[in-house]
From TrEMBL:
<protein>
    <submittedName>
        <fullName>ABC transporter ATP-binding protein</fullName>
    </submittedName>
</protein>
<dbReference type="Pfam" id="PF00005">
    <property type="entry name" value="ABC_tran"/>
</dbReference>
<dbReference type="InterPro" id="IPR003593">
    <property type="entry name" value="AAA+_ATPase"/>
</dbReference>
<dbReference type="GO" id="GO:0016887">
    <property type="term" value="F:ATP hydrolysis activity"/>
</dbReference>
<dbReference type="InterPro" id="IPR051782">
    <property type="entry name" value="ABC_Transporter_VariousFunc"/>
</dbReference>
<feature type="domain" description="ABC transporter">
    <location>
        <begin position="2"/>
        <end position="212"/>
    </location>
</feature>
<dbReference type="InterPro" id="IPR027417">
    <property type="entry name" value="P-loop_NTPase"/>
</dbReference>
<dbReference type="GO" id="GO:0005524">
    <property type="term" value="F:ATP binding"/>
</dbReference>
<keyword id="KW-0813">Transport</keyword>
<keyword id="KW-0067">ATP-binding</keyword>
<keyword id="KW-0547">Nucleotide-binding</keyword>
<dbReference type="InterPro" id="IPR003439">
    <property type="entry name" value="ABC_transporter-like_ATP-bd"/>
</dbReference>
Amino acid sequence: MLKVQNLSMSARETLLEDMNTEFESGVVYGIVATNGSGKTTLLRILAGLTKAQSGAVYLEDSSGKIDLVTTRKKIFYYETSDWLDGHLSALDYLKFVNASWADNKADIGAIIGYWGLEEFVKLPIRKYSLGMKQKTILAMYEASNTDYWLMDEPMNGLDDANQKRFIGFMEAARKQGKCIIFSSHQNDILHDISDKVYFITNRKWAETAGGV
C-alpha cells in the first residue's frame, strides 16, 4: 500500500494542502485537474523525484514501512516522451527496464507483440512519431513488472485503436494486482477505466466514484 500523510506541495504557489490518502493494490486511480494544478508534481513526489513541502509518502506492507531501496524497485514512473534518448531504440529501453526493475523476468517478445512495436522496435527513437513513443513508454511499464505504476497523461498521442488497447492493458494490470495511478483531463475515459477518481481543485484533494 502506498500511503500519503499530511502532504502539502508547492511550486510558485501552493498547489495542494494536507492531502491524506492510501493507494491499494489491484486498484486503478485517476487524477483529474486542470493544467498547472499539480498533477505532475504530485506524481513526481509519489515517485520520489521531488520533495514535498511537508508530509510523508511511503510504501507499507503487513510488516510495516518498506525500505527505500525496495521501494524504488516497486514503483515505475516515466513522465514523458521528452525523456527518451533519440539515439536509442524501444528495444534498448525495454531491455534496460526489464533488467533494472524486473530482474529480466518480463517477456519482452510478448510485450512488443501486444503494442505492435515489431516494425520499429530496433529503430532509433528520433524516427518515431508521438504515438510510437507513447506506445514505447507504455510497454516499458509492463517490462518493469513493478507493483505500482505512476502515469502522466498516458494516452497522449494514441489513436482510437491504441486507446482501446490501453484500456485492455489497464484492465489486465488491475487483475494482476497492480496499483495504477494516472493523471488526465479526459474525464470520460477516466470514469470508464478507473475504480476511483480524485480531483485537485482549490488546493484540495477530493474523491468521486469511478466508472467500473
